[in-house]
Amino acid sequence: MAGMGPAPKAARQRARDTRRSHAGEVRLPRDGKLRGPSLEEATRREDWSEQTRDWWADWQRAPMAAAFEDTEWRRLSMLAVLVEGFHEKPTAAAMSEIRLNEERLGALFLDRQRARMVIEDEPEAAPAAAEQVAKVRSIRDRLH
Asked: Which residues are CB-contacts of 27 (< 8 A; sequence separation ≥ 6)?
């Protein structure tokens, strides 16, 4: 007897619908490029600890920096003051605020998943793919 159980879902509602699940993804390059202003330029201040300078450099090299606008760099420059203070005197309140702001910028894997950010490694195989296409065209041309 047909009809035992719930009716099947429409194709667009199925979990395997990859077109819809990948829609809206932001693809970011993992290229190691330094982006954005220097910490000194962004904050108009020179007296930063080595830990804060390293933290800033991590953000400059982060794949997410490729998508940062002036507003994100401004947020990071304000956050640098908290990071500096946290290294001098760690508090739970400062750590909480730093974590919250870094979460909004995609610091951790889970944060990036929620924001639908996908980090892509540099395409090393691209020249090989182009060579394969050239070989196929060459063979096709010889056959015709």
From this structure: 118, 120
